[in-house]
Write a structure and sequence with these properties.
The protein is an alpha/beta fold. The chain contains twelve helices and 14 strands.
């Protein structure tokens, strides 16, 4: 056992390295990912070790990055695309939705599309719009795509490897404001602790279920710790997979607690919380002691950095959501 404290960013690097060592068909493509190592340094050192044919510095053209990845996948490669910032993915939206998502169904399963599209997402780093967005609902809504989001170093290390091994296209969301957060895990382990599309109960509780993913998981755990001091027991679930949605884990918890608070940075309007609320209401109507409470971003374009702390769900807003759920 080799327990080490590693940042989430470096855990992604080690996961990519392992996947590239295991399979020579794994290639990386993106803007400035080679010599620079990416704007967040996630691919640092990989071009030096694996060469320019496997870690490819692309032009500033997201549609070209994803279109090239489609061709590589059709030729038997497993391309991993890096989209530099969340808001830069939209030029590639047509490629992702019209080609990547549909190719396997279009060929009646004869053609696989093992593409991973890495997207740093979310706010909290003092950047403007196009650099701080949460576009996950667009892709979760699109049939044919798998959509996941890591929240901690251990999951980052394993989930990126599992995504690369998947024969379906995976949109892989990385919480950019957590890149420098450290977590301890066994870096010498050879098996992932859980499946790619499984939710994880990161803190058991009995009074309220709280569900979120990506950057807000840390905030939810801090909120649960603060609530415990006041005698409230919160069960925290890291969703991890947005599509397919691991609804059974949520339903099982809600049937125990009777209350649900869903947290994410994206707008509450037609966001992931809307779908979770609908499915839980359908399956747990007679178990619910209160309406499902959503603690999300406002339905506005991402605000200037000096205002983002008022936009993002924080401890006070989350605890207010818990209080509203308990007030019924």
């Amino acid at each position: 056992m080799a327990l080490e404290k590693v940042t989430l960013g470096k855990s992604l690097t080690s996961g990519l390295r392992r996947a590239m060592e295991r399979d020579p068909k794994v290639v990386l493509i993106g803007e400035d990912i080679g010599k620079l190592g990416g704007v967040f340094r996630i691919t640092e050192g990989l071009q030096k070790d694996f060469g320019e044919a496997r870690v490819i510095d692309s032009p500033l053209a997201e549609s070209g990055i994803v279109g090239t990845a489609v061709g590589l996948a059709l030729r038997g490669y497993r391309p991993v695309c890096e989209i530099q910032f969340d808001g830069f993915v939209y030029p590639a939206f047509d490629q992702i939705v019209s080609q990547v998502a549909k190719m396997r169904a279009r060929s009646l399963g004869a053609v696989t599309m093992p593409i991973v599209i890495r997207i740093p997402f979310g706010g909290g780093i003092g950047s403007p719009e196009h650099h701080s967005e949460s576009p996950e609902a667009y892709f979760a809504h699109t049939a044919g795509l798998r959509v996941v989001a890591c929240s901690n170093p251990e999951d980052a290390h394993w989930m990126i490897q599992q995504a690369i091994e998947c024969d379906d296209p995976v949109i892989f969301f990385e919480p950019k404001r957590r890149y420098h957060d450290r977590g301890e895990y066994d870096t010498a382990a050879t098996e992932a602790p859980r499946g790619l599309f499984e939710a994880h109960v990161v803190r058991p509780g009995s009074d309220v279920t709280m569900v979120g993913y990506g950057p807000v998981v840390k905030t939810m755990l801090e909120s649960a710790a603060a609530a415990e001091a006041d005698g409230t027991s919160i069960e925290v679930i890291d969703l991890r997979s947005l599509s397919p949605l691991p609804i059974d884990t949520i339903v099982g918890s809600v049937r125990k607690t009777g209350r649900l608070v869903v947290v994410h940075e994206a707008s509450s309007f037609l966001g992931m919380a809307s779908e979770i609320s609908a499915q839980v209401t359908e399956q747990c109507f007679y178990d619910l002691e209160a309406p499902v409470i959503r603690v999300n971003g406002a339905n506005i374009p991402y605000p200037p950095s000096r205002m983002e702390e008022d936009f993002l769900p924080d401890l006070d807003r989350i605890l207010d959501g818990v209080d509203r759920a308990l007030a019924y």
